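Notes from the 1:1 (GR / supervisor)

We went over the backlog. Supervisor wanted to see one worked example end to end before approving the batch request, so GR pasted a single chain during the call. The sequence is below; no edits were made to it. Supervisor asked that the structure be written out right there so they could see what the output format looks like.
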Amino acid sequence: MKAIHLCLLAAACVMSAPVVQADEALAKSKNCLSCHAVDKKVVGPAYKDIAKKYTAKDEAMLAEKVIKGGKGVWGPVPMPPNSAVSPADAEKLVKWILSLK
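Structure output shown during the call:
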């Protein structure tokens, strides 16, 4: 019985890993990682810190900030607008960031 549980757990991990990697690849392709990192502050806050502060209720607002930029929430350095990110990609990025809790 224990072996079955371990196999199911391993399968679930393997199945979910590509989604996280795909969204990290999206963040890299949109130059998000030039100012952010998953686990440490760079110019902007760490994605894990963002995930701690916000919930799924904030997804639309955060996706809008990804596209339009923002300022004042994490300090004096504003996040510039990123018009290269589509609304669908912004939503994917936000869901990935919030999954990093």
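Supervisor's comment: Residues 40 and 92 are 21 Å apart (CA to CA).
Batch request approved.
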